[in-house]
Amino acid sequence: MDRRQNVGRPRSPSDNRGRLRTPRARGSVRRGDTGAYPLPSRPWRHMAGMLGNRGTQRAIESLRRDRLLRAPLSPEEREENLTAEPYASSEQLQNAYDNAPMLRTGASGEAVALVQQGLLDDGVPLPLSTTQGTQPPDGLFGPETAQGVRAFQDRHDLLVDGIVGRETLGALQELAGRRTAPPSGETTPTEPEPEIPPLSTAEYVIQVLRSADTRMLDALRADGAFLDGMQALMSPAQFGEAAACLCLVIPGEVQHPAEAKAEALRIMAAQLAGDPATTRRAIDRVRGLIIPANRLSTDYPPFSSLAGTATADGRTWDTVRGIGNTPLGDLRYSTFPEENLLGIPCTATYTPTSGPQAGIPQALGQYPEGYSVATHEFAHSLHGAALTDDDSETIDDAYEERKDEAEDAPTDTDMWVDGREGCYASTSVAEFYAQLSNAYLGTNAGTDAVTGDTRHNGKPWVRAHEPEVYGILERVYAGSQVEGTNPVSAPLAGGAAAPEPAEGAATAA
Amino acid sequence: MEELTGRAVRRFALYHEGLHAATVSSEPGRLISTAGPPPGGPPSHPWVHLVSYQAIYESELAGLLGQATGFDDYLQLLLQAGYDIGSDDLRALKSPGAGVRLLEGNGPVAAAWAGGGQCTCLWLQPEKGQEVYPQARLTIYARGWASRLHSELRAAPDYETFCRAVAQSGLRLLQLAVRGW
After folding, report:
1. N or C: which terminus of chain B carries fewer CB neighbours within 10 A?
2. pTM of the predicted model as reported, rounded to 2 decimal places
3. What is the ipTM score, two decimals?
4. Which residues have C-beta within 8 Å of that of residue A462, sequence separation ≥ 6?
5. What CATH number should be reported for the domain whose range is A85-175?
6. CB-CB contact of A230 with A50 (8 Å)
7. Mutate to test the interface with B, among A428, A435, A436, A438 (most CBs of B within 10 A)
């Protein structure tokens, strides 16, 4: 995978809104991907030193070792030797080619000088090792050479660790062979490798977080110094991206983990792109949990306590896909149904054990294209656990005013964001805010399940009709636009498109 | 308190374990779940309008509602089940803040929250803006304690003094969790 696809963000921290308006980069995660994102190529230890406490550093270092430690060579592999000069005649480099031992920081001598020259020939600058280019390489494997090796490894898509072994020497040898190959008639000019812009430290941290496992994320969430460092280092939008990584929980049963993760992170990052103080509270208090398309939401804590119990209106919670702001300890969880993230069919079913439908499996989770359960539920959790009391009061006042107005014009379809009085948004202040969030983000497509009115969707309506709440949304979401949610006509994961959505079945919480 | 004109429709916030579980009104209305409206809309109810804010309490709220004979009976069942009841003057999803449940023996007779608000009884809720005190937001559950608690609230300069005075009157104070919505 071309790692540049994962860093396709504007370089200017001030251009956050532009980034979030960017449509989904469908190429960023390929079908069938199940592993982590490719690791960035910046020095791990450098990041560990900049951010976080010793626990974080240990976690990062541990991850680095886990991922980057090379396997020993087989006897057959050790039979292979460097064959191209100037490397072939160096015994030390032949040993390094067998990884026994590799060249690393602290080494010195002719072999190091040959590597340094190879780096220079490939355009890697080593000003200290060459006295600003006035002297031959000094043959000392210090920090500059290690950094140069990393740059070389990154450029040639090798494991990036700053250590010279078989892979790196193989690449140096291949380049040396190309440079010394005699011309043979007409030569085809090779296209220059496109320049890969270096990652900033903030971007690097985000890439690390995207690749991190549960253990590492747990360590980072608990590391106040790391969070402080991120908040100070990053633009609000970058901090939102990082926070999204820390707030997302992905069960092992998710059917398309890479695609679902990418989409969930895109959504969460948009909703955490603004005010860093709100984002920080979200890191401390809010989690989004992807519900696999073939599982019930009540299969997973904290929603498992709802299994077999009834909603206030007499349904069973097992049939509900969207649930928001549900406490477990000090955290508030929201569901991110996988099928709604990816536009795939929900294959989970619920079979009642009593009543007229007993024994008959019920299909769940049909939503119209462009309607996001995830943004709605995540808005609930942010409302409940990350907004301030003043924000809540402002939202309450706006809701009460709207209820009063609706009494005088109950059939006005422009009254609420979902249409006339009685629509979803009119049922409570919580749904009012969550549906306004959806409209602001552009994820409120479709018609209201109760009134049948077309939902309003887009910032202009919110700004014109609910200016006070719009101010809060602007502060928290910072202009974010989330395009193409629930793409049932072009699912992000393999498989057939979902069946035609049944409006009446759309149930978000 | 008794000489005040009460609202035609009483509306209370229900708290459980410090979380705002729901809001209930003494009027014919609908049962609103956090799970969003079912096809056809939320079901109607002859004497209560209930808006739930926490999924985890909905089953219990619905169960108690099924047992209740009327709005006042429902409030009593909620108290017995460990809910605390506050006047709705505090905006719905704003954190109720620090509070105490006032108990006579093990029976709750009132609840008070710091930060000020309306003084109300379960059976008589003043109009919005009436009986608002900066010292505390007080809901009286037991008729026998209404005058005494109302007087203590008016006499106390602040929340702490009110709590001390109530404790001296023989009531037990149980600190309430603060978790918000």
Report:
1. N
2. 0.74
3. 0.93
4. A417, A436, A439, A440, A456, A469, A470, A473
5. 1.10.101.10
6. no
7. A428
